[in-house]
Amino acid sequence: MNASNRARIAAGLLVLSGVFGLVSAIRILAGGSQGLPPLPGAEEMGGPPFWAGLMFFALAVAGLFSAFGLWKGQRWGKVVAIVTCAVNAVFGAGDVLGAVAVGSVAMGVVMGLSVLVYVLIIVLVLRRDPVPTTA
Amino acid sequence: MSEAPRSEPPTDLPPRRRWDGSGLLGGGLLAVLLLGYVLLAFLGVVIVGALLTGNRQIVFNPPWWLHVIALALVTATFAPLRRWLRDAIDDLVQAQEDDAYALVGRLNAELQQMASPRAALPQVARMIATDLRLPYVHIMADEGLAVDAVPATMDFNVGQPAAGAPLSRLPIAYLDQRLGLLVVGGRAAGRPLTQRDRALLGDVARQLGIALYAARLTVDLQASREHLVAAREEERRRIRNDLHDGLAPTLSALQLQLGAIQRLMRGRPDEAERLMDGLRESLRGATAEIRRLVNDLRPPMLDAFGLLGAIRQLVPAESDIAFDLRAPEPMPALPAAVEVAAYRIAGEAIHNVIRHSGARRCLLRIALAADELGLEVSDDGRGFAADLPVGVGTSSMRERAAELGGSLMLENDLDGGARVLARLPLRLAPAGLEPPGLDPPGLEPVEHQQPNQES
Ligand SMILES: Nc1ncnc2c1ncn2[C@@H]1O[C@H](COP(=O)(O)OP(=O)(O)O)[C@@H](O)[C@H]1O
Ligand SMILES: [Mg+2]
Questions:
Q1: Residue A130: strand, helix, or coil
Q2: CA of A93 to the centre of ligand 2 (A)
Q3: ipTM of the complex in this document
Q4: Which residues span the domain enclosing A109?
Q5: How far apart are CA B394 and CA B347, in angstroms?
Q6: Are B59 and A100 a contacting pair at CB < 8 A?
Q7: Is residue A16 in some structural domain?
Q8: Domains of chain B
Q9: Rounded to the nearest 10 degrees, what angle do helices A3-30 and A105-126 cross at?
Q10: pLDDT tens, residue by residue, B333-358
């Protein structure tokens, strides 16, 4: 797998996660300043607050933006992708923790997978070709 | 204020860096990723701990041993992860692939239009330092070897090695010729060059090798051309002197003698006859003088016996040394200049074997490749002294080879005897002294056929 293929796979994953992020962010924002009601089974945690909606929105937009840059093989695309994915991964892990706390298996699995995807994107972006010698 | 746009700071200043914030960017990325990693690791340990113990409440207040496990995990993995991340980020941030290869392109342009390596290399060193953000770049190169000049080394460095940073050395070479060394200092202690750095520097060294090789060829060519002109001039002077000092007075004397004979012929024929004997003697002398002059121009042996025959004639009939001549027979027709040079070189080499070597056996070998003649004279004597011999004989052999664009090697065999190896190109440049351009066929690597390889 060469560098541009890796960049394209990473861009594809970023688009997927960006779309999901946008949808959930818009749902939170649509709930107004109260945010959303808690997920079923996660009542203890409370619903995501309004500011989280804003943040998810920003992260999702940044992710889509970086996907475009990655697709074009731009350096800024890689940089934005790395930062967005790092932040997303940490928040995702926090959500997994929350899911464990309230015993919500579905949310734990979904968020755990999303953390893996973000880490995978970072690795894809940073990975280099073994020994790029030119003859 | 800057009339010279390319004026650069003196060589020993650290390279001027283009500030584009990539150091900050790289540092920031590294910090974000490492921080993210630490958080992820901690959260991961707590999650796994909660799942394994089945105690969901510990996520709100993790017990001390989970902290210890998380700390141990992070400590164990932090250094390798940091190294990997930093190299990857370095490569990501420093330059994009295109930027990096733009360096190779600009380097190429710089080298193409250089007046001499001495003028171009400082600039090249600075370009490498600036583009790859290396604190220290040092180029050492041998200057072209003039025919008998001592090799001069060019030495340029930019910046100072960072304290404790490793130095990498890359040979600068072309074909099998070592032409110099490129030394670069790592960016900081404990940070070797990244793979991409090394690949790029490899390309840079290759390019430098080609450029230095071409420059060396030019210097050598210039030197041997000057030598050729000087040698030709010297030859002319010698012939003129010989004619002037030897033949001219002899001929004037002959004239005078003829006048005297004319005057004496009637009255004192005996006297005249005596004078005519003298005249014949003088004429014989003049003829010998002319023959000597002509022989110096081209050894008559060559015409009489051909190259191999003439070389056989060089070997003394009675000698303690057993000479052995191996050559393709019959010898094809060779350019006259090559024949003369081979003959003279063989003559001097044989002479040296007899005078200096103390050898018992001497082997003369001639080998013909498509485009060169190899002549090897090796003996089993005491060999050359440790330092290269400098004498009239050896330098004249060297000159004769160089005049034709060939080379002469003096070395000692493994078993100690002396070995003289001359390579004389058969395809001679036209007399117009055109520089043999680097176009094909000049660029094709010449397959040097070892003349001394049997089987
Ligand atoms: N075949 C040989 N074996 C050992 N030493 C040699 C041989 N040929 C040359 N030399 C050494 O190299 C020196 C230089 O040789 P040369 O240039 O021919 O000068 P010359 O013959 O006038 O001394 C010699 O003085 C001798 O010491
Ligand atoms: Mg001699």
A1: coil
A2: 87
A3: 0.84
A4: 3-126
A5: 11
A6: yes
A7: yes
A8: 21-94 (no CATH), 114-297 (3.30.450), 304-449 (3.30.565.10)
A9: 140
A10: 888 889 999 999 999 999 999 999 99
